[in-house]
Description:
Protein name: UPF0102 protein LIN78_03525
Family: Belongs to the UPF0102 family.
CATH class: Alpha Beta
CATH architecture: 3-Layer(aba) Sandwich
Pfam family, one: UPF0102
Organism: Leeia speluncae
Radius of gyration: 14 Å
Helix content: 25-40%
Strand order of the largest sheet: 1-2-3-4-5
Distance between the termini: 39 Å
Shape: globular
Order of helices and strands: HEEEHHEE
Amino acid sequence: MTIAQSKGQAAELDALNYLQRQGLSLIDQNYRCRYGEIDLIMKDGQTLVFIEVRKRQSAKFGGAIASVAYTKQQKLILTAQHFLTTLKKMPVCRFDVIGYEGSALQPVWIKDAFQLAS
């Protein structure tokens, strides 16, 4: 495991703990399929939330939140659609992004960061 992977896993664990303190409950972690991976899948009330966690050392190239660009969003959407095929009932869903910049301990949480294009 590289240092970056180790820091990424630590950020995911921090995000999980933070979101649980905010009242969300964990459904799945590091869900993988042929389309990609979703860091956290959680429930916020009746809403199923697909969460991408990003950690960046600096905001020099746009920062953690901005690093979830269109291409990554499309992979997350395809992966989420794959996950949804395993469910009997289609829940209300949203895509959130949790970002950590530098040594900041408090994450930036963007709810409903992007949506399916209609």
